[in-house]
Automatic annotation (TrEMBL):
It is found in: Nucleus. Residues 1-22, 152-183, 597-636, 1744-1822 are annotated as: Disordered. Residues 607-620 have a biased composition (Acidic residues). This is Sister chromatid cohesion protein. CDD domains: SCC2. One of its GO terms (biological process) is replication-born double-strand break repair via sister chromatid exchange.
Amino acid sequence: MNGTNGSWHTNNGRPLPFRPPTVDEALQYSPLSSIVPFCPSIIPFPSAGPPSSSAIFTTQEERRSARRALDSFNTDNGSTHSTSARLQKTLQDLQQLLNAEELTQFNFKSAPHFAGNPNDRNAPLSLNGAPKTKELQLGQLAKMVLNNTNISFRYPTPVSPTKTSRKQDTSNRAPQQPPPKLQPQVIIRNEASSKQNPAIQSSPNIKFTHQQSPAELSIVRPAVIIPGLPSSSQREEYETFPHIDAHDAFSKKRKREDVAADNEPLALSYDQRQKADAAVNSLRGLLQDIFEAEDQYQPDTSGFMSSNAANFFTPNPTGESERPVLVHSIQTRLESAVQKVISAGRIATIPVDYLSRVQRLCESSITAVNDSSLAIGAEWSDSDIEEWLARISVTENGLQAAKIMLRVMTAGREEKQIYSEDHLQAVITILKHVLQTCLVPIVEARSTDGGSDIFKLASVQKKSITTLLQVCGRVLRLLGDLIIKVDVMDHAITSVEYISTMLIFVENAHSEKDSALGIQRFELVRRIAMDVLAKIFARYEDQRTFIFDEILTSLEKLPVTRQSARQFKMIDGKPIQLVSALLMRLIQTSATRSIKDKKKTSQNLTEGDEDEDSTSEADENTPSKRTRPTNSGCNDSLQSLSGIVKRLHDDTLKNASYLVNFMVQRALGATKTGDQPYRNLLDIFIEDFLSVLGSPDWPAAEILLRTLLSVMTHLVQSDKFAVPAKNMALDLMGLMGSGISDLKMHVKQTTRALDTSQSELSARLIRLSEEVLEDKVNETDILEFEGPHRIVLEYLQLLARDDDPQLQSAQGCHITLWAKHVCNLLEADDGIDDYERSTLKSLEKQLKHMILDPKWLAAEYEFEPVSTVQGRLAAGITTLRMPFCKYLTSIFRMLLSSMTSSHATMKSRSLKSVVQLLEKDPDILDDDVVQRIIRLTYDSSPLVRDSALMILGKCLTWKPDVERKNLDKIIARAGDAAIGVRKRAMKILKDIYLRNEGKDVKSAIADALLQRVKDLDESVAELARQTFEEIWISPFHESTKVDPVKMKLALQNQVSLIVRTVQRGESVLSVLEALLQNVLSNTSKHAAANFKICKDMVAVMFDGVIDSDELPDKPAQAHILQTLTIFAKANPKLFTGEQLESLQPYTQNIEQSDNLLVYRSVLIIFRHVFPSLTSYQTSFLSTVQGALMKYIAKMGKMELNEIAQCLWIINGVLKDTAERLVRLVCSVIAGIDKEKTKSPLDDATTKKIVRYLTILGYFGKSCDFESHVDLFKAKMPGWKGTTVAGLIVDTICPFTRQKHPHTLREQAFESLGMMCQSWPKQFLRSDVTTAFDLVFVNNDSKLERIVLSQFSGFFALEEKRSETGAEIAVGEGAVHGTERLGISLVANDNDGVSTFIAQRFLTHIVRIALGTSDELALTATQIIVSINRQGLVHPKECGPALIALETSPDPAISKIAFQEHRSLHHKHETMFEKEYMKAVSQAFDYQRDVLHDTFGATTQPFTSKLHLLFEVLKTGNSKVRKKFLSNLCERINFELPKLSSKGEPPSSLLYARFCIQNLAFFDYARVDEILHLVSCLEKVVTGTGTVVAHAIETEILGIRLDPEPHLSQQVPATSTPNTQATILLKVESDIVRPEPFIKNTVNEAQLRHLTTATMILSMIWETRTFLRRLWGLHKQRDGKSNSKTTIKDLNRAPTKAPGVTGDKYWERISEIMNALDSPDAMMAQCKTFAELLAVDNELKVASEDDEEAELARAAAGYETPSDDENGGENVLPSGGARGRKRKGSMSAAGTPKKAKKAGTGKPRVRPRKNRSGSSVTPEGDG
């Protein structure tokens, strides 16, 4: 009725749709007479949404299509021809639809027309008094239907009242007429139709809607009149606001009559009223029958009960109550009848006594359940199961009764007697009983655990139990409705909260097969529980904290696996946790005005806005009475928007912070692998929030994530939190940043999915999204009234037509966030012009209306329909402008800054988080980020280097430009010290190789990977071999499926690359040879295919040798032939005879140096391939033989070696050619004999003899002339020997003497060695042995290198026959018969030679190995290792040397020494352990004398030099390791008088530092080893340190002791070394402590001696402190470990504390080592140590002493830790206490002293102030 005036017409003059009621008529519905019940027949429920459109066609296309069909019918009907069959069929269908007998009779009421439009005053009136409208022109089809259809209709004929003028003054206006008099309706018949269709009759049931009697007409009744507008109000006086009207593109304000129509009560139709009456009558009849049966229920005197009562009731199953129980069928009918009456809104017509009596009957059924047991027992019989099923039936009946009771209580009646607290408590009790004893155990039962009996029974009886579960869900939902609508007791609310929480946190099955009832069936009940909990949260603000606490304390019950945790299925997204959805819904509810606040909103809601009318709404869920008093003391309608929003927003953030802080605090105290799941749960919660971020129906996700991000930022930036907390924060920040990037990507994809041509709304959203993604959007465009916020609300309004509470909370939260943003912008007033400010002010008023009345927007404005895509895009746009998404740049910067942290784990974690962000959005990668990552690849931590390398590898795929600039840095990481870093670098290099075509890049990568083939770690070497096979060989395996031309081109490119790689250096040759041997070996998976590919490569290379243009880049012939030599050495069978013949010309011309390289390569190929050929061309071999013989005199050593072997191989093939070689050797011997007679030997003669000796040595080594002795004797008649080898040795050996020139001796020893290698017996000759002895005695390095190289070659040949180096592998003897035994196990004369060389020259070989670090040392090491492998000497003789050589900086020396040491340790562990102390000393000497480095560890990263030794020890017995640590501590310890302080610095000090630093950086295997070591170190300090401290106090600081005569005892006092000193032992209480003073004259030698001692002990103490911090042992002392340490804890592997590095420890040791620089420094060092021993800075209490003493003894192996806390007390072993206040001086004999009295402990001297580098606080290491 808005806008009506006293004349009963609308503002525009149109008639009202109904007559205003009179006072009498309206009074019965007013609040003055009664409380308005919830009855739609009286006042219908208001509609939340806009009125639905009545249009038939939804689109213009549908309208045009219908118009075309209608025009077609009109055309057919208008034609002169006969009517078409289609038209006849359509007419029959329409007539059937318009059959009067099938149509509903409508009784229309129409008000008379009181005032017409002024413009139509002269228009004629129709019969009902309304103005006549223009006659409609009907189409042909419409006329045909009208003429052929008989429809009776009627209309009222009212009498129009007297017209009144609009300009009449409303202040003088009074009622002019009584209500109009209605005349009887007139029936009009369509006579024309009746004639044409006589079969169709009008309906006889014609009724008059209303006819007033004369008495009624005579009564004048007052009418309700609403005053009209003042006379001065004119349309032209309205003001236009263009800036507001400009935004009406998508929405427009509803017309007043439309708003009035929305607010009109909907009249019930006749059929609906009939159905409602029928439902009421049915319920009344049923209740009367039930009550009558109840009255008849009592049996008569005969004991019989009436049959009627038996049909309705059954005795109570428990037998404890006399009240009967309704049978199930009657109860089902009763529930249905009650539900129908409530649905019809007629429950008020049922007497309250009836309802009360029904509740009492239901109570009987409920109480019958509470007394029955529903639990399932184990091993039940069939009878037990039948009884249980009967109880289930009773239970279902009781729950149905509970539903009836709750439906009555929620129906809206106001009588107090139906709201019995006892009844409510009975319902709650039965529900809790059924859930706890029956349903929850069934849901939690699994087929594999102890509940298998329950699972089996439930699976069989699934149908009945599922029904029970569904009924429980309905009861719970009704309970929630009751608590919302009715103010109940707190106990009931708490009970319902408990039930809901219990259901939410019941552990459901992870898969359907493990669920007895089905996962989704129970999830539906969970959702009901969530809805109930959320409703209570929204209704009762005082319950919110309790609800939060219940949820949070139950989180640990949730599953921690992501798949099983997420059972809440979203409509169009990934599933999330139900608890995640619940928490978000609670936060959204916090941002929405509560139900009570909405109730308080008055009808003059917009009192301050005169342009708007009142639109107050009554809340449909809240009764008008029976509501709790509100806590709010002010009316929101009187507050400003900022005040309302601030309260809502602050409450929301407070609740979000409460949730977040709880989860974070619990997560900080747990680990991902711990018993408490909070760390994993936090990850799951964040993932759930991120998965719905930007979703229209979950705006709370942004609030929770924003709060989480704030907490994570605080964790990272604050210094109060430990590194693990910061790591967690960095991890989660990376996850959240990735979620923001995902949202951006989603917005981009959604924007692309929209079409700008679809609608102007889509075009506007696309523009906004592009501006938001580019961060160029104006905030006012986002916040405007028709902006994305409004679109989201309209979209949610369409979804929430069924009043979904979750969507309503989402709407409220969106409005609050929108309003908060607007208020913030207005308060900031930054860069806002007047137009924008005016727009925001108007928006502020509109937002206030939306907050106070959620239905105001739909009631006042219409909006263009919003599609799902548009709604989601709008939500994404608004979310990206929220604070959380704006922090993406800050997140990335914080992660980058954490990459420079001093803690390795923080660097690594931040790197991984950066990867997450870069993977989602590579556009944020720039040069600065890349350089930060590059710097981290050189970090001291392997973990950081590995993470940085991983990120760098991914950056290469995102930005290829990074690859070219940083390839060298990645190649450098391939040689990293850490195995994992090397492997990752190799994988990255492989990827770069495969995606690059440049030969230079591929060649550099191939070279780097080849170096890893000989890596010390076998796994790295294997990875390198596998990588090469994949990139060089595997791509050609499918050659048969590829075009031959393409395959040949690919092979040519690959060969060209291999040739280019070979050119990179000599180091590539041997590695590539070993690699090809591995690829072609029988152990390879693709040996046959690899062989074919390599053979094809060899053929391609031969083509390149003939014509270099055949290969890309046209490599030189020399380089191609050099590459071919590698293939020839790897497998000679790759070559053919024809290919070798093509090389014959290259043996003819060798005049140039380039030709010499070609010549040498050809010879190498010949030497390796000739023995493998099965057929030869005699002429070819003869030609080659002649060419080789021709150039013997001109060739160098390398060529001579190849020529000699080739000639002997050819001799074996051609036969009868040995005479030429014999002549050659005899001529050489003759030449030597001729030249040696010259005296003295000039340079020319010497050169000639050297040349002869070279030829003689190579041919003597390569050719077996023993079968041709006769030829030699024929050529040399004067020779009387028996072996040609002896002849050659006799010729060479004289030139080894010292009288000859050194160059001649060098060649003589080289040739002699070659002869001895081929003929080992020559080693045993006395003249040969003497010559070798002289070389070692004279320490001639050049000759030693020659001799050792010959020894190495000999031992290498011998190892091939040994067990470990046999050519036929172990285990293949069965295949090869006795062949292997004949090679490796048959004794010969060489065995004695090997033993002879090992025993005679081992000492010299070890000396050479430990005396240098060059190639000579490598050769000597190889000989030592070979001797040990062959078992030629006792392991003790070489063991210490091998350990010392492990510390060599040369990786080759270190590798082979380590491998042999490990082998010896495994074979002889118990015997070898005794040599370890000698080995440590030898390693120190090696480092000091050879490498000139006395430090015990290397930096970058910190690694002990003896780490390989400890790695070997870790493979053995733990007792051996503990003994090693104990012995090493004893070696560090000293006796003060015997300590040497000579040297700069003293050698004892350097040795102590070497050992201590090794102990500090060992990688320990078990916790008990560290505890044992710490105990040993403490024992040294507290034992020896006491003597040193006493000497300092007495001899340096001059502290005076005044002993009592009867307590004093004289012992020798300390002094300088080799002098006897005196120490006075005294009880502490008798010591007089004046201020310490320093003697005026201090013996400098004595001061230096004591300083050296304190330096050793201080370094021991620093090491002990560093170990405790590094391995986290200080936590136990600090009381951070609540449980007692067990043997299991001691045996576990230790874990390094995050953030503890060796930098500060290293600096502190360096400071201590500088203490000898000056007397002042020495004095300061002595004072510092004295204070350390005198004052206990750690304040260790007795109980901790006892515990740590127990651990120390257990770690040492003396006893086992016990879990029994009541065990006997243990006494710490001597020296076991650490750093406690020294109770006085002690002698070596341990003289007993008096017990110290309580409270007497005082420091001897005043503690000095801390200075830089001080270690007064032992835990001060970083």
